[in-house]
Amino acid sequence: MSTATATIRELRTDFRAVKRKIEQHGEIIITDNGDPAYMMKPVAVKPEKRPQLPDYYSRVVRRQPKPLSPAETRRFWEEERGDR
């Protein structure tokens, strides 16, 4: 990529054109009265990494009591009902 130039006046009055130059050339030199004064280039932004969410479903499943077997279920209901 080649380096382009722009004046402080261009930067102030026609930023869109300066922005296009930055996008085309990668970086530009800002001149002040014809002397190079500043360099502008785009900032490389890293994409934000999203934190991994906890697996709530597996936590709930782990905390659930174990199911009763058919024999245990029958015995439970017999005790609950009593002599009806």
Compact overview of the structure:
The protein has helices at residues 8-13, 15-25, 56-63, 70-81, and strands at residues 4-7, 28-32, 35-40. The protein is of the alpha+beta class.
Describe the secondary-structure layout.
Elements: E1 4-7, H1 8-13, H2 15-25, E2 28-32, E3 35-40, H3 56-63, H4 70-81
Parallel strand pairs: 1-2
Antiparallel strand pairs: 2-3
Range of strand content:
15-25%
Order of helical and strand elements: EHHEEHH
In total, the number of strands is 3
Helix coverage percent = 40-55%
The Cα radius of gyration reads 35 Å
Strand order of the largest sheet: 1-2-3
Distance between the termini: 91 Å
Number of helical runs? 4
Major sheet summary line: 3 strands, mixed
Q: What is the CATH C-level name of the domain at 4-40? A: Alpha Beta
Output mean pLDDT. Answer: 90
Low-confidence stretches: none
Q: What is the CATH fold-level name of the domain at 4-40?
A: YefM-like fold
Q: What does the overall shape look like?
A: rod-shaped
CATH architecture of the domain at 4-40: 3-Layer(aba) Sandwich
The secondary structure category is alpha+beta
Kindly describe this structure.
This protein has 84 residues and is of the alpha+beta class. It has a domain at 4-40: YefM-like fold (3-Layer(aba) Sandwich). It is built from 4 helices and 3 strands. The protein has helices at 8-13, 15-25, 56-63, 70-81; strands spanning 4-7, 28-32, 35-40. Strands 1-2-3 form a 3-stranded mixed beta sheet. Strand 2 and strand 3 form a beta hairpin. The longest helix has 12 residues, at 70-81. It starts with a strand and ends with a helix. 2% of the residues are buried. The model has no long low-confidence stretch (mean pLDDT 90).
